[in-house]
Specification:
heterodimer, A: 352 residues, alpha/beta, D-Maltodextrin-Binding Protein, domain 2, 2 domains, eight-stranded mixed sheet, three-stranded antiparallel sheet, 15 helices, 13 strands, 47% helix, B: MetI-like fold
């Protein structure tokens, strides 16, 4: 018996030693879900630019000497995973990042895209004025960018949001019900691919308003935990993630690889064809170069827009209190929940 | 150690309580560890946070102007019990018919075995078309989800019914309907109750899954929304209520079985 226990102990020790040996390369994880500017990481894995498996490296990982571990999940579980500390970084909208940042101080290391029409209110063509929707239900995911986009558009049109009813429904389910012409569901606020798919299948429906009225308010991003960023090698992980994103964007910009890359990005995202995907990337505008991203991150507009998003989130109780937000590289001792830090992009852009 | 050696009822009770205590202790340990790693973490709330979360579910919410737990319980219970009612009744009738009438058996046996393997939540779009997106959808999903397995269970129980008893009843001059009602049904009843007990779990799973996707009230809706907001101090009390509900339902059905079929040797 004792010898067995000793044997087990020795085995465990061996395992620990072995894992310590492979841990020479710092390893960090990134949780992502299928969305145009995030599927980029899945595509990069398929192209062997990075290898999402633990302990394996692609060319970009070798360049920065890190191990990127990809964890793919649906969007909601990604948020839970990040909140529970089960991944170091996550693909998330800045609106949804506010809440986890209260429990886990976070840094926006890379804005990936912004919604310019990718979130839309779809109604039958008989509805041409938004006030026709008063007293009727508009279906979409509650307390999400959909509800935000809906209320912001109402405000821009001078309408009172209180006169409208936003009813919770999964966007995929809402799109299906709309396409089936369910009687009670004839106004939906959803995002892509559901917007384009619904419009394709219901020629009698149209977009009443969409996120193109509020550009750069809904920002898709890669957000990383501040605690993880403090670990050795973490900066290089951030650099490698950013490098990967721009590598795929260069393929999108290059006419010879553009269509192929678009199809690859769209493969699991939807069954839209190439033409549909071209539309998708128009409505989900990528911050495809460091220059575009830095313009956003260093511009004064971001501060006002982010404040507006924070105010909304406090109002509809997405966050219990407003998280402290800062812009620019971390100053010593600054205690903020969410920081927009352009220094990682700058470092990648500066490296030849 | 003898297999199935009987133990004192008191020992059994103590062991049961102990195992629950171990579970609670393990959670406390997990919460403590998570707190040490990150005091601001809300995904494994400590007991104090859980109490706060629970309070927030039972006091009147100032935005929605209702008590979450009350509103959700009413909505979900209505859907669950309607679904169970139709599913259980349908399963019993179809199972009895399959067990007693060979043409029905030949006709329904294959589709029932096939349907029993399909999770209704995966066929959401079909339910939209059939019953729309209102409360009827949840009811249909639960009913159709549990019906095939129940029907198959009743069918098998009827088939186990010994032929000798059947002949005896015929000899005594019973009509076919009398045989079904006074001879077969009482024999099948305890096994039917067992099957219903087993179908409560799946029924709850189907309901929660459907509510997570469609709806603005109910357990599934609240759990999905609050999980996304990382308010696990709200989510876990909801799970506890679900567990307690399942436990009580199970207990009641066992009592019912004991009361109605005291002769049933499986009447544990």
């Amino acid at each position: 018996m004792i010898s067995r226990i000793l044997g087990l102990g020795a085995g465990a020790l061996g395992l620990i030693l072995a894992s310590a040996a492979t841990a020479a390369t710092p390893s960090f994880s990134l949780a992502w879900s299928e969305y145009p500017s995030w599927s980029v990481f899945g595509v990069a894995h398929n192209l062997k630019l990075i290898d999402g498996q633990a302990g394996k490296q692609g060319s970009i990982e070798k360049r920065w000497n890190v191990d990127i571990v990809l964890k793919e999940a649906e969007y909601d579980p990604c948020l839970t995973m990040y909140g529970a500390g089960q991944c170091d970084a996550v693909c998330i909208t800045t609106l949804d990042a506010l809440n986890p940042s209260l429990g886990r101080p976070s840094v926006v290391i890379l804005p990936t895209s912004t919604s310019v029409g990718a979130d839309a209110l779809i109604v039958p063509k008989s509805v041409t004025q938004v006030n026709q929707l008063r007293g009727r239900k508009v279906f979409g995911l509650a307390k999400s960018v959909s509800e935000y986009c809906f209320i912001r558009n109402l405000e821009l049109l001078g309408e009172k949001p209180e006169q409208y009813t936003f009813s919770n429904m999964d966007p995929g389910a809402a799109a299906v019900a709309m396409q089936q012409k369910q009687k009670e569901i004839d106004a939906i606020m959803v995002w892509n691919p559901f917007v384009l798919e619904t419009l394709n299948r219901r020629k009698d429906a149209h977009v009443l308003f969409d996120s193109s009225k509020i550009p750069k308010e809904i920002i898709d991003a890669v957000v990383m935990s501040q605690a993880s960023l403090a670990k050795p090698g973490a900066r290089d992980f951030a650099h490698a993630v950013i490098d990967t994103f721009y590598a795929i964007n260069r393929r999108l910009a290059d006419a010879s690889t553009r269509d192929d890359t678009l199809v690859a990005i769209g493969e699991k995202f939807s069954n839209l064809d190439l033409a549909g995907m071209k539309k998708v990337v128009q409505q989900t505008q990528f911050f495809g170069t460091p220059k575009e991203a830095l313009e956003l991150m260093n511009g004064g507009e971001l501060k006002t827009l982010t404040q507006r998003v924070v105010d909304f989130c406090v109002k509809v109780e997405i966050v219990p209190k407003a998280p402290a937000i800062a812009f620019g590289p971390a100053a010593a001792g600054a205690d903020v929940a969410l920081r927009f830090d352009p220094s990682y992009i700058q470092a990648v852009a500066a490296r030849p | 150690m003898t297999i199935r050696r009987p133990i004192q009822p008191s020992t059994s009770l103590v062991l049961g309580i102990l195992s629950v205590l171990v579970l609670l202790g393990a959670y406390t340990g997990l919460a403590w560890r998570q707190e040490r790693q990150n005091p601001d973490d809300t995904t494994i709330p400590r007991w104090g946070q859980l109490a706060k979360g629970f309070t927030s579910t039972v006091e009147v919410n100032r935005r929605s102007n209702d008590r979450w737990l009350v509103a959700d319980s009413i909505a979900s219970a209505k859907r669950l019990f309607s679904g169970l009612f139709f599913g259980v009744l349908g399963g019993l009738l179809i199972g009895l018919a399959m067990g007693c009438l060979t043409p029905v058996e030949a006709c329904l046996s294959p589709p029932m075995s096939l349907l029993a393997k399909i999770p209704p939540t995966a066929a959401l779009a079909v339910f939209f078309v059939l019953v729309g997106t209102g409360d009827g959808m949840y009811v249909a999903m639960i009913a159709i989800g549990i019906l095939p397995a129940l029907a198959v269970g009743v069918h098998l129980a009827v088939r186990e019914f010994p032929d000798e008893l059947l002949y005896k009843a015929y000899t005594l001059g019973a009509s076919p309907l009398e045989i079904v009602w006074t001879v077969i049904f009482p024999q099948v009843l305890p096994k039917f109750i067992d099957a219903v007990r087993l179908s409560i779990g799946p029924a709850m799973v189907y309901l929660i899954a459907a509510e997570m996707v469609v709806g603005d009230v109910g357990f599934g809706y609240r759990i999905r929304l609050q999980s996304k907001l990382l308010n696990m101090s709200v989510v876990y009390p909801y799970l506890a209520v679900l567990a307690a509900f399942g436990f009580v339902m199970d207990y009641l059905l066992r009592q019912l079985q004991r009361r109605l079929c005291p002769w049933f040797e499986g009447g544990r």
